């Protein structure tokens, strides 16, 4: 495993444990070889694709567990929007998801100021607007939920892109 959403120099880019679970395949590995095989090609290909596509909005989609073993407090958000310094798209996204009646995490359940390496590198560093979305896993565990969320995310992303273009 290699966490593509973290900087290369972050120890958690190749974690040996996650939420108290040991990741045997990451113990004692050649870190440089793993970065060279997965992390760098991914970011190189993404950078090249984004340069060619010149998107009006970059959307990243991740999911999060309803709870953590290491921090058993409830994670009540249905969706979270992460951002670091550039909140142009995030603020629109938060408002639009709230209009669906959802509990939206503003930099929750993770902080985009700590866990946002992909968007920092490919969006913020290049002045590109982005919408980093986290959906709670129990809501997308089955096909019906996936379809509902796919439609909702597409609608929100279109609206955010339009709002940014109009600004």
Characterize the structure shown.
This protein is of the alpha/beta class and 167 residues long. The protein has two domains: 1-54, no CATH class; 56-166, Zn-dependent exopeptidases (Aminopeptidase), CATH 3.40.630. Helix content is 38%, strand content 15%. The protein is built from four helices and six strands. Strands 3-6-4-5 form a four-stranded mixed β-sheet, with helices on one face. A hairpin with a 2-residue loop joins strand 1 (17-18) and strand 2 (21-22). Helix 2 (88-98) crosses helix 4. The protein is globular. The chain starts with 16 loop residues before the first strand and ends with a helix. The model has no long low-confidence stretch (mean pLDDT 94). It comes from Tsuneonella deserti. InterPro entries: N-FG_amidohydro. This is N-formylglutamate amidohydrolase.
Give the helix/strand layout:
Elements: E1 17-18, E2 21-22, H1 31-53, E3 58-64, E4 79-82, H2 88-98, E5 104-106, H3 117-122, E6 130-136, H4 143-166
Parallel strand pairs: 3-6, 4-5
Antiparallel strand pairs: 1-2, 4-6
Helix pairs in contact: 2-4
What is the gist of this entry?
The chain has 167 residues and is α/β, with parallel strands linked by helices. Helix content is 38%, strand content 15%.
């Amino acid at each position: 495993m290699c966490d593509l959403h973290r900087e290369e120099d972050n120890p958690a880019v190749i974690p040996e444990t996650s939420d108290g679970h040991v990741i045997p395949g990451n113990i004692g590995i050649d870190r440089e070889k793993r970065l060279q095989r997965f992390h760098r090609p991914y970011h190189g290909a993404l950078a090249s694709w984004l340069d060619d596509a010149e998107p009006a909005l970059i959307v990243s989609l991740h999911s999060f567990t309803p709870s953590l073993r290491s921090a058993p407090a409830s994670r009540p958000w249905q969706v979270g929007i992460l951002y670091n310094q550039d909140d142009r798209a995030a603020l629109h996204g938060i408002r639009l998801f709230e209009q669906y009646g959802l509990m939206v995490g503003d930099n929750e359940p993770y902080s985009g100021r700590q866990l946002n390496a992909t968007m920092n590198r490919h969006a913020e560093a290049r002045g590109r607007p982005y919408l980093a979305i986290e959906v709670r896993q129990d809501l997308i565990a089955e096909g019906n939920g996936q379809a509902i969320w796919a439609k909702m995310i597409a609608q929100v992303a279109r609206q955010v892109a339009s709002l940014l273009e109009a600004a």
